[in-house]
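Chapter summary example.
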Amino acid sequence: MLDKNGIAKRIAQELQDGWYVNLGIGIPTLVANHIPKDINVVFQSENGILGMGPFPYEGEEDPDLINAGKQTITAMPGSSIFDSATSFAMIRGRHIQLTVLGAMEVADNGDIANWKIPGRMVKGMGGAMDLVASAENIIVAMMHTNKRGQSKLLRQCTLPLTGVSCVKKIVTNMAVLEVTDKGFKLLERAPGVSVEDIQKATEGRLIVEGEIPEMSL
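The structure predicted for these 217 residues follows.
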């Protein structure tokens, strides 16, 4: 199975030259460390930066330069820093070609739950609400199962929803899946993971057609 960096590296293969890309909190932030050398993409963080770079090396952190998850980041040459109103105008105006989000659960119709677990204190849904409402291309980066081994790819989400029928593709530590009208379509499997392993770990409807190739990383 893939680790978190492996998931990010596979998602980086989805990037296209010239795209503006929003990276959510958690695994998605690692995508900035794996950009293919032959393309140019610009990363946006909703707290107000366009041109976000990879994480800094130890000892080179700038405490004034952070992403939406309060992690220290770097800024690429030519980057811009601005207020949240401008940042969300970019998101709501659909000027971002790809959004990468983490998730607690995803349903096989594209519903996503990634902001609240009942009984736990949270500050609010935050920028995820705007991202799922405005983005036309959402890829989810997540683990296939939770710590108890239960599937996070469900027939129907059990946690409070962030967005409805908005997820297009999912990359987990076990597989790459596309969300279709008939459920999760299995596109690729992680190295060393069988189709049967993925079927056992997926509660939602899973479509398996033909020979499923192994991810190329």
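To summarize the output: The chain has one domain: 4-33+82-207.
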